[in-house]
Amino acid sequence: MSKTSSNAIKSLREAIENAVKTAIDKGALPQGELQSFIIEAPADRSHGDYATNAAMTGAKAFRMPPFKIAEAIKENISLEGTVFEKCEVAGPGFINFFLSPKYFADVIEEITASGENFGRSDFGQGKKINVEFVSANPTGPMHMGNARGGALGDCLAAVLDAAGYEVSREFYVNDAGNQIEKFASSLNARYMQIFDPEFIMPEDGYQGEDIKDLAKEFEGINGDSFVAASEAERKKALVDFALPKNIAKMQADMKKYRIEYDKWFFESELHNSGKVKAVVDLLTEKGLTYEKEDALWYKNAEVVAERLKKSGMKEADIEKLELKDDVLIRANGNPTYFAADIAYHKDKFDRGFDTCINIWGADHHGHVARMKGAMDAIGLDGDKLDIVLMQLVRLVRNGEVVRMSKRTGKAIQLADLLEEVPVDSTRFLFNTREANTQMDFDLDLAVTQDNQNPVYYVQYAHARICSIFRNLAADGILPRACTSEELMLLAAPEEIELIHHLSAYTDEIVAAAKDYDPTRITRYVASLAALFHKFYNAQRVKVDDEALMQARLTLCGAVKTVISNVLTMFNVNCPEKM
Q: In what order do the strands lie in the sheet with 128-132?
């Protein structure tokens, strides 16, 4: 929470504890020990700015009804030196506390002094977190799921950074294994079909137009020089030509999407370095593999069942899951994707990350338990691997689901979306729904420049504040530093409500980091914009009372700072004019 809020709660806790001691000394309460209690903001602030259940938790220790304990605390509490001005007993024994104008002045002063650092905290204590997201297959263009995952992953990383973690963004490139062999076979077929239309495309080959385009481009450079080459040589040449192009396109798309990765990790590195073999050998040494049908299998069912038992799941329920073992090394001697995945995650933890977070599509839900179990199996802690499962996204235009691009007539890819929709809208709108909910991305809304578009609404609040400062400057009125007493003039309901919301920003960042939910901050800033517009419509900034005008200018500046901090954190523009 903000320093102002933190100090307020700390001083209030001390005041409550001292009140109990005083009440005991005066005989208003019997001898007893005050139990642990909470102080929190009630849902309805008309009941107070903060409330405590201290009297409720003390009922057993003091052998009195909570209401009488609450009355004793109220009668003996001193709020002097705190930012609270009064308290009331409510219901069966809650005590509600009301903040003084000094608190609201302190919030504005803290925001003004902190500037771009307001909202940042040391909650994460510098712990190292790896956030891996998108990690699209490099054999084809990126799709809508990657667009949503990119926005969620990048903004989650930003939230964790603001909450005091040391964050690394990572993209895992699957440039080895079966999908690359399929990629090679598909390219080979399309290349050969240029010279022999009867050449057969593999049944499981990649059918996309991008494969045809790459083969045609390869032919444009090399002609028929590879037709007579061996299939192995031809496939290698095609992959060596096409794969770097696809990877470069992915990197360019991510950059256009304003995502900068700290590391692009290539699966081939794991195989070339021997790390896949090493992790398979490690599992074998631990007695967790066996041979069957010329393949090497991993005892996944045993490991996951043991993990679920420790979590408290009953054996009957575990049996219903019908857990199965997994192949690590195929009969042809090639390692499976799962073997490489275990080695990859081991490599992450070996690099010193305290927690590894993966953003996966919901279709990977069955992979979660076995990956966590595999981490346990190799001697790591599977609970330090966290998976955020992301539901499907549908594109909608005029209320209808859209599957084809108007420009190309093909399935819409990330690159198509970024050509049609401003990046600001794309990043913001994909962060308006939690990852675990299905989402309709409204193309009409995304390009709309009015208050129906959430990002426009927030940006307009920022631009409106800039306009206020420009217009007053044209009249020779410039903002100046306000005293605490001047800021205490901000007492209108719309001003108090707005400052309350501003004071919650740091807490919201921490909560979003805890829940791995950056959409919480998107909702927060949208609400902030709404509260600012409400204030603007109810209270004039330019008034005859110079002190009040300056206080309101300072409040406007604080709102501008927080909106800017959110949008900058999420790599969304902060326009000064609209």
A: 263-266, 166-173, 128-132, 355-361, 385-390
Give me the pLDDT at residue 408, please: 56
| Residues facing residue 84 across a β-bridge | 99
pLDDT in tens, 150-195: 999 999 999 999 999 999 999 999 999 889 999 999 999 999 999 9
Q: Which helix (H) or strand (E) holds 132?
A: strand 128-132
State residue 3's pLDDT score.
84
Instruction: Check: CB of residue 391 under 8 Å from CB of residue 437.
Output: yes
Q: How far apart are CA 4 and CA 170, in angstroms?
A: 36
Q: Can you give the pLDDT at residue 407? A: 53
Helix (H, G, I), strand (E, B) or coil at 146: helix
CA 274 to chain CA centroid, Å, is 34
Question: 126-130, 400-404, 449-453 — which is least confidently predicted?
Answer: 400-404
Q: Is the pLDDT of residue 441 over 90?
A: yes
Q: Which residues, at least 6 apart from 206, have a Cβ–Cβ distance to it below 8 Å?
A: 139, 140, 182, 183, 186
Any residues with CB less than 8 A from the CB of 43 and at least 6 apart, and which?
A: none
Query: Do the Cβ atoms of 4 and 27 come closer than 8 Å?
Result: no
Cα dihedral 337, 343, 349, 352 sign? negative
Q: pTM for the whole thing?
A: 0.92
Q: Are 33 and 103 in contact (CB under 8 A)?
A: no
pLDDT tens, position by position, 357-374: 999 999 999 899 999 999
What mean pLDDT value characterizes the chain?
95
- pLDDT tens string 310-327: 999 999 999 999 999 999
CA distance 403 to 414: 12
- Position 41 scores a pLDDT of 86
Number of residues that this document lists for the chain: 578
Crossing angle (nearest 10°) for helices 144-162 and 519-538 = 70
Secondary-structure percent of the chain, ordered helix, strand, coil, rounded to 5: 55, 15, 30
User: Which residues is 394 bridged to in the sheet?
Assistant: 440
- CA 568/CA 116 separation, integer angstroms: 9
Instruction: Pick the closest to residue 142 from 173, 111, 104, 102 (CA basis).
Output: 173
Q: How far apart are CA 302 and CA 139, in angstroms?
A: 34
Instruction: Count Cβ atoms below 10 Å from residue 355 Cβ, excluding itself.
Output: 19
Identity of residue 53: N
**Amino acid at site 406:** K
Structure tokens at 432: 């308006």
Answer for the pair 112, 62: CB distance below 8 angstroms, yes or no: no
Which pLDDT score is estimated for 404?
Answer: 62
User: What is the per-residue DSSP string for 229-281?
Assistant: S-HHHHHHHHHHHHHHHHHHHHHHHHHHTT---SEEEEHHHHHHHTHHHHHHH
Q: Convert the pLDDT of each residue in 203-256 to its tens digit.
A: 999 998 999 999 999 999 999 999 999 999 999 999 999 999 999 999 999 999
Residue 75: CB atoms within 10 Å: 13
Q: What is the mean pLDDT of residues 283-312?
A: 96
> Tokens 């060596």 — which residue?
240
Backbone angles phi, psi at 295, to 5 degrees: -110, 160
Q: Which helix (H) or strand (E) holds 83?
A: none
For residue 307, the Cα-to-chain-centroid distance in whole angstroms is: 27
